[in-house]
Structure formats: C-alpha cells, structure tokens
Specification:
Helicase, Ruva Protein, domain 3; Rossmann fold; two-stranded parallel ribbon; 2 domains; single chain; five-stranded parallel sheet; 15 helices; alpha/beta
Length: 391
C-alpha cells in the first residue's frame, strides 16, 4: 500500500466524522422543532381550557379555586387596623422576646425605621448585631435579604446585572439583593470603597440607576449595616459621604448577667429567632411612618435642632461638622420617639435622647484632637451642655 492509499483512508475518516456531526446536529434540530410544535399547542390548549372553565363557573355563581405554586407559602392573615403606637409596641415586644436587655437599642432601631432612615451598628463580635436585624425582619412581613460583605464583592453583586438573551437578542436585568424591603449589610467595612459606593444612591434616593434606567426600590427600603470596630486588617473605613447616609450609628454593648443567663436558657430549644412570627405587615410600617410625620415640632425646637448641628461646625477639634441632613434626621428621629411615647408633639428630651446617635458619627476630628483622646461623643456631650434649651 503506497502513500496515496494512506492519504485517501485519512480523508475518508475525516469525512465520516464530519458527516456524523452533521447528522447529530440535524437530529437535535428536528427534535427541538418537534418539541416546540407539540408543547406550545398543548400549553395553549390547557390555558384555553382553564379560561373556559372559569367562565362556566362564573355563570353558575361559583368561584374557581385559586391556582398557586405548590411551594408558595401561605400569606399571613392581615392584621387589624392598629394605631401607629400599637404597631410599635407589637414589634418591640416581638424583638425583645429574642434580644434580652437591649431595650434602648431596639427603641433607636425602630425610631430610624419609622423615620425613614438607615442604621449602622458598630460593636464587638457576638453582641447580637446580626440577630437584632434578623429579629426585626422576622417581626415584619417584608422581603428580607442579607449581603455578607467581602473584599472581592462587586457592585453588580449588590445592584444586579444585565444578561444577554441570545434567543430574543435583548438584555434582561436580574435584580440584586438590594431590591428588598429590609437589607442587612453585614460587615460593610470589609468591602472596597467601590462596592460601598453602590449603596449611596439607594440609601439617599431609594432608587438604583442601571444601564441608563432608573429602577425604584420599595417604599419601606431600610438598611441595617454592621461593622467591627476593633479589626482593621482587611477592612476599608467608610467614607464621610457613606457615613452621612446613615441616620443613626450606635452600639449594643454587653448585657447584664441575668439577661445573659436568659439568653443561654432560650437557646436550649434552638435559636429563638427561627421561631419568631411576623406581627406587622408592610402596610402597618408605612402607616407607622405616616404617624411620625403627623407629630408636631414647634418652631423653637426646630431652631434648637439647627443650633445643635451648627455648633458642631464651630466646635474645637472638629475638622468637618454635621450637614443639614443631620438636622433633618434628628428632627424625624425625635418625632418617632414622641410617637412611641404617646405624644403628638416633640419635647427637648426626645431631641437629647437621639442627638448623639444621629450626629456623632458624621463628625470628622482633627488629627491632633484625635491623638489627644477626643471623641465625637465627647464633642456631642459638650455641645448638649453648652447650647441652651428653649423654654
């Protein structure tokens, strides 16, 4: 057998492989075409049958049973019409059944929720920051999502991404976890500043701009972020613009021995957070926010709020004072506290109660003052003592 015969055999083998591939592609094409011709008419027939059946039942006076996915959970029964203060009391009791000895933190958290702000929880590991956020989410029948911030997290992991559909030759937007009613941003300072900035527009304007389109978020949209104050390796401090988006920043602190024993006892039967049931609906929380807006603030107290914020811009040792956004957040938080106390007007005590959690985290100290041991809380304590309270 000469060289020409070997070349012919090789050519025949390659042709055989090519022909086999062509047959395989033709078979899959024919199969898909047959499936489309069979499945689509069947689906159309079933849909038409359901419509005709519903029409017959309507003529006979009967109602058709609701068709719903087998995996869908039953919707909670609508709560009776409660007053805004009663809604606050129900949610507080639900959270306190899990978070022992944290009444002040729960009150501040709900004040931020009722006033339309966001919260930054900064405390040591294991103090219950994540548990507090999860307890709030389970107490409210709202969409809850959690993001664990890491150094490799991208903005698209939070906001969403557009995916190209080859069949329709179009892009379809897949929403990210930010499209939720309550968002837990766990360890937010572990993500890069680029990723942290993805929350700026959402927290300030309750919307997301993607691919040239404005995508509004839900009316409740509430962010609870956590960070660890003692770990600095692998973390990125939040910039001033991001800190200014949070209505409040506060810590939880360690609870007393009796409360800690109660926590141990509650853990015997499993995590009590898993057993929480929603005691308020989304409409209840929106009604709570409307009630906060109806609380009256006198002109004298408005000037007092502005005086406190203005004093931070002239305080010694302060490089950057609080912005007008702090004045607005302080007034709204005071309105929420007045509603919680059953009052239809704000008093100076309500302003004093939340002045430090609302303003302190927005201040930037001078390096010399920071090295000397001055803190933003010390600055706020001094301002509250110096600025006269309206009579």
């Amino acid at each position: 057998m000469d060289c020409w015969d070997f070349q012919c055999q090789g050519l025949v083998g390659e042709c055989t492989k090519l022909w086999a591939c062509i047959l395989r592609v033709a078979w899959w094409t024919l199969r898909c075409d047959v499936e489309l011709k069979i499945v689509k008419p069947v689906a159309t027939f079933l849909d038409k049958t359901h419509q005709e059946g519903d029409a017959v039942l309507e003529q006979s006076g009967s109602t058709a049973p609701a068709r719903r996915p087998a995996t869908a959970a039953a919707a909670p029964a609508p709560s009776p019409s409660l007053s805004p203060r009663a809604i606050y009391q129900h949610v507080t009791a639900s959270i306190e059944s899990v978070m022992r000895g944290q009444s002040v933190a729960i009150r501040r958290l709900l004040a931020a929720l009722a006033s339309g702000g966001h919260v930054l929880l900064e405390d040591y590991p294991g103090t219950g920051k994540t548990t507090l956020a999860k307890a709030l989410a389970r107490s409210i029948d709202a969409d809850f999502k959690r993001i664990q911030f890491t150094p490799d997290l991208l903005p698209s992991d939070i906001l969403g991404v557009s995916v190209f559909n080859q069949r329709d030759q179009t892009f379809s937007f897949h929403e990210g976890p930010i499209f939720a009613d309550i968002l837990l941003a766990d360890e937010i300072n572990r993500a890069s500043p680029r990723t942290q900035s993805a929350l700026l527009e959402a927290m300030a304007e309750c919307q997301v701009s993607m691919d040239g389109q404005r995508r509004p978020l839900g009316p409740l949209f509430f962010v609870v972020a956590t960070q660890n104050p003692i770990e600095f390796r692998g973390t990125y401090p939040l910039p001033e613009a991001q800190m200014d988006r949070f209505a409040m920043q506060f810590d939880l602190g360690y609870i007393g021995p009796a409360d800690e024993v109660a926590v141990l006892t509650a853990q015997n039967g499993g995590n009590p957070v898993d057993n929480l049931k929603s005691c308020a609906t989304l409409e209840d929380i929106l009604r709570l926010r409307e009630g906060v807006q109806n609380v009256r603030v006198s002109e004298e107290l408005k000037y007092y709020v502005v005086s406190l914020v203005t004093a931070t811009r002239r305080a010694p040792g302060v490089q950057l004072g609080a912005s007008p956004r702090a004045s607005l957040a302080l007034m709204k938080a005071a309105q929420a506290l007045a509603l919680f106390d059953g009052q239809d007007f704000v008093s100076p005590e309500h302003i004093h109660e939340v002045a430090a959690p609302v303003i302190a985290h927005r201040l930037v100290l001078e390096p010399q003052a920071k090295f000397s041991g001055l803190t933003t809380r010390h600055v706020m304590d001094d301002i509250l003592k110096r600025v006269p309270v309206p009579v």
